[in-house]
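User: Teach me something about this protein's shape.
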Amino acid sequence: MYLYDFCKACYLKRDCRRITGELDNSKMLSDFCFSNQVAKYNVEKANIPLRFQQARIDDFKDNPKLMAHMKDIVSNLLDGESGISLCLIGEKTGTGKTHCAAAVLNHYLVNTLRRRIEKKEDLFQDKPLAYFIDYALWVDTLRSRYSDEYDSEIVEPAFEVPVLVIDDIGAGKMSDYAREQTFILINTRYSNNLSTIITSNLSLEELSNPTVLGKRTVSRIMDNADIIEFCSTDRRSINNTFYIGSGR
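Assistant: First, the predicted structure itself:
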């Protein structure tokens, strides 16, 4: 049962231990929840689309193998393992690739916030703890870099955030500029041992095509990567989603 009117829309509603009664609510203020304020601030910083803010690993319970693998990835991220690369690919749209990527990111963010609360660390820092970009929008924003329309807050966090989701990489109009900027992003993260999760409707072979991303970029994405291929025709048919291998 929700405690406040805003609980229904809260990012933490599926993880809140006050809603479940695990934590004591007797001293809660009648109209204010600190956790809600922390969540709103950090989700905005993380740029997670509204549609995927409630994505969680438990959504994949019909595929125990995939769910267990996702939990392992989050555990490794939380334990401080760096340079993790996760590729979620499949030519069919609507199969759950973005949902899966967002679920991993959400679990990482929620548990990172919990750890920061326990350690009494800053919960309202300027830099995001994790970040989500729509690839086509990110590239389009970059094209306005030298105009008054440029929004650095969309572009810059992708280069330094510890965990980044690049959704639908390779989508949109590809140009030499787009390929160059994508290489710079991937190479920067690769060189600095930062963790990156990508989704794409293109195969790795198609992404390697010189008219798309090119071999230099894809070789860095694939280095020691976990590769999950989504083969389902319907994202609700999670049992038809197949984990096909790992380079780790």
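Now, about its shape. Strands lie at 85-89, 131-134, 163-167, 195-200, 226-230, 241-246. The chain has one domain: 47-246. If you'd like, I can walk through any region in more detail.
User: That's plenty for now, thanks!
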